[in-house]
Design goal:
Radius of gyration: 17 Å
Number of domains: 1
Protein name: Myb-like domain-containing protein
Number of strands: 0
Number of helices: 5
Pfam families: Myb_DNA-bind_4
Organism: Pisolithus tinctorius Marx 270
Structural class: mainly alpha
Order of helices and strands: HHHHH
Strand content: under 5%
InterPro entries: Myb_DNA-bind_4 (IPR044822), SANT/Myb (IPR001005)
């Protein structure tokens, strides 16, 4: 039995998806894009970023899943940027966790009822799509 290859997204492809969605923002009436927009996004990605040998097609469903994942990352970074998180956050370097505050970071992402588990990738890496995702939210 054969499995479809998973769609693997580069930062550039994520940006292309967000740019496409921004150009179709008027079609997101209640803050959610319709099926037709996701179909058009998949066609746009197939035309402008065809999959490589090790990469699956960027279908309407995978485009929608990617956008949901990017929104999760946006909200995690927005929490990190708030003063309440207790961390300094930089769009390029993330939360800049060092040995001095590693225990505090671990508690933040693990212990606090999993409330901040989506922040884990931003320990020492920024989120390049923060502003682009923000423009797409209601």
């Amino acid at each position: 039995r054969t499995h479809k290859k998973a769609a693997v997204w580069t930062t550039e492809e994520e940006g292309a998806l967000l740019d496409f969605l921004a150009s179709h923002l008027s079609q997101a009436g209640d803050g959610n894009f319709k099926k037709a927009t996701w179909n058009a996004a998949a066609a746009h990605m197939a035309h402008n970023h065809p999959p490589g040998l090790d990469n699956g097609d960027k279908t309407a469903e995978s485009c929608e899943r990617k956008f949901k994942a990017l929104k999760k990352s946006y909200y995690a970074v927005a929490d990190l940027k708030s003063v309440a998180s207790g961390f300094a956050y930089d769009d390029e370097h993330g939360a800049m966790i060092s040995l001095d505050n590693a225990d505090l970071w671990d508690r933040y992402v693990k212990v606090m009822y999993q409330a901040h588990k989506d922040a884990k990738p931003f320990r020492n890496s920024g989120f390049p799509h923060f502003a682009s995702v923000k423009l797409l939210l209601p």
